[in-house]
Each structure stands twice: as C-alpha cells, then as structure tokens.
Amino acid sequence: MSENKLPTIAILGGTGKEGPGLAMRWASAGYPIIIGSRQEEKAQATAAELRQKLKLENIHGMENSAAARQADLCVLTVVQAAHQSALEGLKEALQGKILVDATARVDFRDPRPPAPPSAARLAQNILGEGVRVVAAFQNVPAHALKKNPGQPMDADVLVCADDVEAAEQVIRLAEAGGMRAYYAGGLDNALVVEGITSLLISINQHYGVKTASIRVTGIDHS
C-alpha cells in the first residue's frame, strides 16, 4: 500500500445493523470497502444496495475469509453469539493485520454490563500475537451511522488497544467517518466500553430514542 493510497477496509459480518453504516461513512470518505459475510451472495447484495444508495463504486461483497485476506484493515461487526466462531474461522486470514472488534456483549432485551474479559481481549487470545486487536465503535448508534454519511456525527469513539500505534490508525479511521475518537487504554479497558453500551441501550429505552451516545469533554482539539 502506497503512502497516498487509502487502506482497503473489510467489514466482516458487515450485513447486520452496524456494518452497513460504517461502510457508508468510510466509502463516502473514499476508502475502498469490502463487505464480508459467511454467505458471499448476502455480502454482494448488501454491497450492491450500498453502491446504489451512495452512487459510489468503491464497495464490494465477498465471503468473510476472502474479504479479510484482501483488506489492509478489518472490522468485526458480528452479533455477540457469533463472536468466538467468527474469530476462530478467520484466524489464519487475519494474521499480520489490524482487527477492529466492535463487539458489545450486551443483550438488548436485558441490557447489563458483560463479565470479564473484554470481547477484544478474548479476540486477542484467540487470534494470537500475529494480529493487532483494537476495540472501537461499540457505543456508536447503528441508526445514527446511516444518517448523512458524509457529515460529522454527534458521537465520540473510545479506542482501546495494547498497541498504541494500531489504536492511532483506528482513531484516524473514526475521524474519516465523521467521528471524534480517543485512545482509552489497553484491551482490558474495553470491558468498560462494552458496559457503556448497556447504559446507552437503557437510556434509549427509557427516553424512546435510538441515538443516545457519549461525548468526551475537556480535551482541546485546536
């Protein structure tokens, strides 16, 4: 990948709630996007739908493993029940890459903070040292991602990783998608970020909204 070329991003399990919204934002910013799914046809159908919606040609669909191999950076947006099996199946294809784990192990019907370790720590344990795991995007409302994808979002992203350089790459990616992002410590801290999702779901339910999010204050961006 040349210095001036944007990295290709694979969104693995990208046909669900959050994946298409992230794809829309990054595709609108010029990134080549691969939608991944266990079923290639499903990935291609979602990619075609997004291309038509955005009037862009930089979105394609592939089976998850093929998507991971072709990408420079991967983002995992599977449902929590598929988290472990997806990682085990993609272990070989992800070696040498950054994997952004957006998993929040929270039941929407009964939102409570998950038990340790964090989903991202579990991912790192499964994938091994050859993959740099970064936790991010667990608190970003899927509903909000799809609105005005070329415009800034009123939501901040907490980024956790043991590898700070990998975290910085993901922070830049979040900013390209219209979000502000902050390094928030190592992978074990991501457990707290997952727990915040349970708070946001509870807020959404109580106030009858879909887009409660977090903001970080006290940091000068000038």
Structure, explained:
- With 222 residues, this protein is α/β, with parallel strands linked by helices.
- Helix content is 40%, strand content 16%.
- It is built from eight helices and eight strands.
- Helix 4 crosses helix 5 (119-127).
- The protein is globular, with a radius of gyration of 16 Å.
- The two termini are 30 Å apart.
- The model has no long low-confidence stretch (mean pLDDT 96).
Summarize, please.
Helices cover 40% and strands 16% of the residues. The chain has 222 residues and is an alpha/beta fold. It has an 8-stranded mixed sheet, with helices on both faces.
Topology:
Elements: E1 9-12, H1 19-28, E2 33-37, H2 40-54, E3 59-63, H3 64-70, E4 73-76, H4 83-94, E5 98-101, H5 119-127, E6 132-135, H6 142-145, E7 156-161, H7 164-176, E8 180-183, H8 190-207
Parallel strand pairs: 1-2, 1-4, 2-3, 4-5, 5-6, 7-8
Antiparallel strand pairs: 6-7
Helix pairs in contact: 1-2, 3-4, 4-5
Strand tally, please? 8
- The number of helices is 8
From the alpha carbons, calculate the radius of gyration and give it in angstroms. Answer: 16 Å
- Coarse morphology: globular
Order of helices and strands: EHEHEHEHEHEHEHEH
List keywords for this structure.
eight-stranded mixed sheet; alpha/beta; 222 residues
